[in-house]
Write a structure and sequence with these properties.
By secondary structure, the chain is α/β, with parallel strands linked by helices. It is 46% helix and 24% strand. The protein contains six helices and seven strands. It has helices spanning 6-37, 39-46, 50-70, 80-91, 133-147, 166-180, and strands spanning 96-103, 107-116, 119-129, 155-161, 190-191, 199-204, 210-219. β1 (96-103) and β2 form a beta hairpin. The longest helix is centred in the N-terminal third of the chain and has 32 residues, at 6-37. It starts with 5 loop residues before the first helix and ends in a 7-residue tail after the last strand.
Length: 226
Amino acid sequence: MGLFSASSVGSCIGKASLAVNTHEDTLAALIDQVRRTEPAYLDLVTARTDAEFEQAFDSLLEGVIVELESNCKQFEALDEDGLTSVLQIGLSRPGIVALRETHSNGHVDLTIEFQLGHRQRRILGEAKIYDGPAKHIKGLEQLLTRYTSGREGRGLLLAYVRKKGVSHLMESIRARMDTDLPLNQVGSTVTHDTLKWSFLSTHTHSCGDRLKVGHIACNICADKAL
């Protein structure tokens, strides 16, 4: 008889097969749980193209913004830095590192690094409490001319709106930008597909590429009376 009998070999194979099946079942259950509780996060992990990634990130960002808006009374005392810190905490996930005031040719308000899948990505964000189109465009200037090298993904410019009429206020920014075409803006702005009251602009950057920026509204007006 050899060193191992046929029955012992079969037993080992059976145990190994059971272990593999158990591992696969556990992994499948975990993926199913993430799909049910964090679908946007799962989409980020599995994104293969820039378009898939941006769509998944927009959904993740929308969830955090909705939570911030729903609890705006608790955040009335916070300034831009405080509000962005809340956003930073809400965006953080395994493989997603959201940081405040990191250095990128200056101290950028929000840096989001994605260490997911086969490719690492990075988003830079600037945030302003709404105080008219001029202040918003100043934030855009900081983002495009100071912080962005051109290697990052679509830029992020957050507008925390504490005044009533967020829809009209964001439209006033769009109107100004579409008239003045600031920062080498290419054509008119376009309505954001996912995020309400938000829009996208395209700019010719110093790197030679055309870069997109998402102008994202966060309605934190605590006074809901008409």
